Amino acid sequence: MITTEEQERARGWFAGRLPEDLFESLVEVTVDREEITVIGRIPAPRLADSASAAEQDAAVQGRVQEFRQRTREERMAVAREAEHRFRKKVSWGVECDGKRALFTHVAAPVMTRLRQNERQVLDTLIAGGVARSRSDALAWCVRLVQRHTDDWLTELRDSLEQVRRVRARGPDAAADEDHGRDGGPEEPEGTDGTESPGNTAPSEPGG
Known about the structure:
Elements: H1 4-17, E1 25-31, E2 35-41, H2 53-70, H3 72-86, E3 89-96, E4 99-102, H4 116-127, H5 134-148, H6 150-168, H7 171-181
Parallel strand pairs: 2-3
Antiparallel strand pairs: 1-2, 3-4
C-alpha cells in the first residue's frame, strides 16, 4: 500500500516542479504501485450566456484538446524527471468547467481466481450487455464498489496508515536504526551522490 507520506511527497514535488502557468491550480496527485496521476484545473472557455449545453460541452472538449497539444513538451519533460525520481509512470488529466478528462494512462492487468458463483456474476453482466468480457465486467464491479463505499475505503486506508505508523515505532525499527549507525548496508548511490539509476523508468512518458 502507498503511504500518506509517499502521496504527500509526490504532491509536494509536482507542486514545486510544475511550471507556474501550466495549471490554474493543482487539483490532485494520486499515487499507486504503477502510476502517478496528476490532475490540474484549466480555464473554462468563454461563451455567451445563451450558449446551449451542446455548445458548452463542445467548447470544453476543444479547450482540453488545445491544452493537451500545447503543453505536451512541457509535461513530458516533467514526467521524465518524475519517472526517474519515483520509478513510476506519470499520467495527466485536467478539470475544466467542472468536467474531468484523463489523458493516456496506465491500465494495469490484475490476475485473480474466481469461484463458480463469482464467475456467474460476471457472465450475467456480459449476458445483460453491461460488459463485453469477464475482465470488463470485473472492472465494472470495482467501479461500482468504489462509487458506493468511498467513505468505507477512506476509513480502511486511514486504518492501514495508522498500523504502518505503529509498526514504525516498534522495536524492530529501532534495531534497524542501530544497525545503520553501526556501519550496516546503505542505499546505493551513483558517483555524483544521486540515486542509483539501475531501475530507471522508460524514457518516453505518455503525453
